[in-house]
Amino acid sequence: MTMPSLIANYQKKQTVTQLKKAYTELSQVIKSAEQENGMIETWDVSSMLKGQEGADRFANEFLIPYIKVIKKCFPSTSECWADDVYNLNGVKYSYLGNRAEFNSFVTVSGYSVYYWLNGDGTGGWLWVDLNGPRKPNIIGKDVFALTMRWVPDSNQNGPVTCERRLGVSMIGATCKSETSPRDGLISGNFTNGVSDYKCKKGVGGSIAGVYCGALIMLDGWEIKSDYPW
């Protein structure tokens, strides 16, 4: 095996380890918050849905007390999250650059979290950068998309044709009673899918890479040979 292959294999294994750790820790955050605040579907977040300030209050009540954080950026800055984030095709996705209406923080484990709440009051997005604001800042390589949800019939992240999981899920693995097809996560074409989110390089997909975390999890926490590394 050549040196570049050895390096790539090491990086893939490291990515999987870090992603699984982040997913596990963030899932546990919600479970710990539930122990003190009741089940997630009962949380009163109605006053926290407007912009950065509301998301700040949400984090201070339901997230930050239950995870070790070394830096908070409310609103988000380059100290916690990269100014430029790219999709799998290497195209900058401006919505994930630091924006005044979104927040971020860096955990003791080394990964950053960039988040916002859905305006419809059903949940929110949790973007994770496994090595903090450092490069490469590419969706599907060190940046991965998760969701937290407290309403099971949300139409965020795809049409409503299933009951959504409550708590933390990978985007692309949010249905409670069914598993997204592997080829669907790669192409973006499945019943609850969004084609732009596909875990595949090539034409289209302004935010290509969103489903890559779900693909890694579906593959048994492994980056397989056809993964768009």
Helix content: 25-40%
Approximately how much beta-strand content do the residues carry? 5-15%
C-alpha termini separation: 17 Å
Strand order of the largest sheet: 1-2-3-4-5-6
SSE order: HHEEEEEEHH
Largest sheet, in brief, is: 6 strands, antiparallel
What is the mean predicted local confidence, pLDDT?
92
What gyration radius follows from the Cα positions, in whole Å?
17 Å
Tell me the number of structural domains: 1
Uncertain residue ranges: none
Structural class: alpha+beta
Judging from the principal axes of the Cα atoms, what is the shape? Answer: globular
The number of helical runs is 4
Would you report the number of β strands? 6
Quaternary structure of the protein: single chain
Keywords, separated by commas or semicolons:
alpha+beta; 229 residues; 6 strands; single chain
What's the gist of this structure?
With 229 residues, the chain is of the alpha+beta class. It has four helices and six strands, in the order ααββββββαα.
Topology:
Blueprint: H1 3-37, H2 51-62, E1 69-73, E2 103-107, E3 112-117, E4 123-129, E5 143-149, E6 167-170, H3 182-187, H4 212-218
Antiparallel strand pairs: 1-2, 2-3, 3-4, 4-5, 5-6
Write up this protein.
The chain is α+β, with helices and mostly antiparallel strands. The chain has one domain (3-218). 26% of the residues lie in helices and 15% in strands. It is built from 4 helices and 6 strands. The protein has helices at residues 3-37, 51-62, 182-187, 212-218; strands at residues 69-73, 103-107, 112-117, 123-129, 143-149, 167-170. A 6-stranded antiparallel β-sheet has the order 1-2-3-4-5-6. The longest helix has 35 residues, at 3-37. The radius of gyration is 17 Å and the shape is globular. The mean pLDDT is 92.
